[in-house]
Amino acid sequence: MLRLGFAFWRISLDSMDSAAAHHVAEIMDALAEKGLASVTRVMPDPHKDIGFNILSQFHYGPEIQIATFETLADALQSMARSVDSPSTE
Length: 89
Description:
By secondary structure, the chain is an alpha/beta fold. It has one domain (7-84). It has helices at residues 21-33, 50-59, 72-84, and strands at 7-11, 38-42, 65-69.
């Protein structure tokens, strides 16, 4: 069972067939319904993120934080910083 406020990481997707968009949208909806708090993406080529950005606009609410990094190291460093200094919300 997922805890409310969980995070989702998506790493190492080089390409996606357009037919998969429907399935990705269903997964996004399911994650949002289960209390997703944040999404972290590792995208070495930012131009490949456009499909996920568009899908995110329709399937995630504004309360879900989305962060995209060019390297896994950058993403992990950001996560470590957020653990060291958690928000006060």
